[in-house]
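Appendix B. Worked example

We walk through a single record from start to finish. Start with the input: the chain for inorganic diphosphatase, Epilithonimonas mollis, length 203.
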Amino acid sequence: MIPNFKAHPWHGISAGEKAPEVVNVFVEIVPTDTIKYEVDKETGYLKVDRPQKFSNIIPALYGFIPRTYCEDEVKNLAVETGAKEVTEGDHDPLDICVLSSHNITSGNILMEAIPIGGFQMIDKGEADDKIIAVLVEDQVYGHIRDISELPKAEVNRLLHYFLSYKNLPTEPAKVKIDLVYGADHARKVIVASQKDYTDNFAK
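Next comes the structure step. The output line below is what the pipeline stores for this chain.
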């Protein structure tokens, strides 16, 4: 008899046999969502985190890489590449955006993606990297292997979202992005987050 259980999307699924070149992604939010969903760390179920405050709609599929964590290794990598005022990782799985030409209408799904770069985001002193990836075999984006191959407007659209999605009009900016990096560094961030995961959850 097959046991009736659901694997925890953070702890019960691997980052992928080919990680960091190709990674598993658990998608929490899709571009049509006006609610920010987030995996509940205790139960593994998708929960409502908050309604989107304004017209900030995520321009790509958004989720995390299983069995990753952002703590000392991710923070140290940010410091090594010149990040200022960063004191720790954000204590969450590594975030990832996946570009696809397909209209995927709901989250709570798994997919394979190829990391092509990322943003070194600092959120109130915490290293909160955002990996940018493309859906494996996507007809429009699937051939891209580095963020430098994307149109600048696509990169700017993603940058604008992350620089503004937490802000109220009357408040100063809460986050900063000092570095847009390519595929080579993205893979280093993924490996660092896997090491942080092992150090914290696989002892």
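Two observations about the output. The helical segments are 72-80, 152-164, 183-201. The domain at 23-165+173-201 is CATH 3.90.80.10 (Inorganic Pyrophosphatase).
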